[in-house]
Design brief:
Distance between the termini: 25 Å
CATH superfamily of the largest domain: MetI-like
Number of domains: 2
Radius of gyration: 24 Å
Helix content: over 70%
Strand content: under 5%
Structural class: mainly alpha
Strand order of the largest sheet: 1-2
Number of helices: 15
Number of strands: 2
CATH architecture of the largest domain: Orthogonal Bundle
Shape: flat
CATH topology of the largest domain: MetI-like fold
Order of helices and strands: HHEEHHHHHHHHHHHHH
Length: 302
């Protein structure tokens, strides 16, 4: 009986299955075929050799006993946590505020201004951030004029500021773009709920708290779960472009570590081992976050 129902469903939805074939081929070619390269993590891989030397788990043992690896993990998790918290809170706040704007022309201007940084490459974005934070930049000029500093503060030379510079840089670049999903979710809320709340005397903030936020709760949870799966991807371009010898201790993420000690030194086995570690960790984090969300708040990806 189940087989017959499945066949009927396949026949009824055959057009959809044909449409998804190109996507399946793309994912197979670019996501699954490269997994053959994972064998390099268990070899002392050298491209010029025809027969590679198998070393088992030596690359993983090196990673998990190397002090630099734990420092890199700390940097990655620290910047990812800051990006996650700032990214979500700022995007949700901006979406809520834009939803309350009644002047459509002004709303379009705000949306356009907030979206524009998303389309800048990180090369341009980091150049603007560097100018903003330089000794003669806008921030130092403002802080000196209002009396907080007497002399310019070289922010990019202080490693203690680096995580927050990356966090706020990501917010500036992506907050407008991230609000699109929340604004779309807000439009699906029944307008009659707002009308009923207004009749009961609720103001704007009460409507936001009791109607808008609960209305987009499922969207927020799904995005949080998905982003937890990417928590080991703190970034590469912004850290690589903004770091220097004074801040590299706090700027080096997993991806930067792979480039510096894997690709540049032609230790492809180490780079592959790090990639496997990131992939497996991401799967575990995503699955755990999905299970926890389903258990606690009855919302999940699947």
């Amino acid at each position: 009986m189940k087989t017959k129902n499945l066949k009927r469903k396949l026949i009824r939805q055959r057009d959809l299955f044909f449409m998804i074939i190109p996507v399946m081929v793309y994912v197979f070619v670019f996501s699954y075929l490269p997994l053959r390269g994972w064998t390099m993590a268990f070899q002392f891989y050298r491209p010029q050799r025809e027969v590679q030397e198998w070393v088992g788990l030596d690359q993983f043992r090196f990673l998990f006993t190397d002090a630099a690896f734990f420092r890199v993990m700390q940097n990655t998790l620290g910047m990812s946590f800051i990006n996650l918290v700032l990214g979500f809170t700022c995007a949700i706040f901006l979406a809520l505020m834009m939803n309350e704007i009644r002047q459509m022309k002004f709303k379009r201007v705000v949306q356009t201004i907030s979206y524009m940084p998303h389309f800048l490459s990180w090369v341009i974005a980091t150049a603007l951030i560097s100018d903003f934070l330089s000794s003669t930049g806008i921030l130092n000029t403002l802080l000196i004029n209002i009396g907080i500093y007497e002399t310019p503060n070289i922010f990019l030379a202080n490693k203690d500021y680096f995580w927050w510079i990356v966090g706020w840089g990501n917010v500036w670049k992506s907050v407008g773009w991230n609000t699109i999903i929340y604004l779309a979710a807000i439009t699906s809320i029944d307008p009659q709920l707002y009308e009923s709340a207004a009749l009961d005397g609720a103001g704007r903030f009460r409507k936001i708290w009791h109607i808008t936020l609960p209305g987009i709760k499922s969207t927020i949870l799904v995005l949080v779960i998905m982003n937890i799966g990417w928590i080991l991807n703190a970034g590469f371009e912004v850290q690589w472009l903004l770091s220097n010898n004074l801040t590299i201790e706090k700027a080096e993420t997993i991806d930067v570590f792979v480039i510096r000690y894997g690709i540049n030194l032609r230790n492809y086995s180490l780079a592959t081992a790090m990639g496997i570690f990131k992939t497996v960790s991401s799967i575990i984090l995503l699955t755990s976050a999905n299970w926890l969300s389903k258990r606690l708040v009855k919302e999940s990806l699947v």
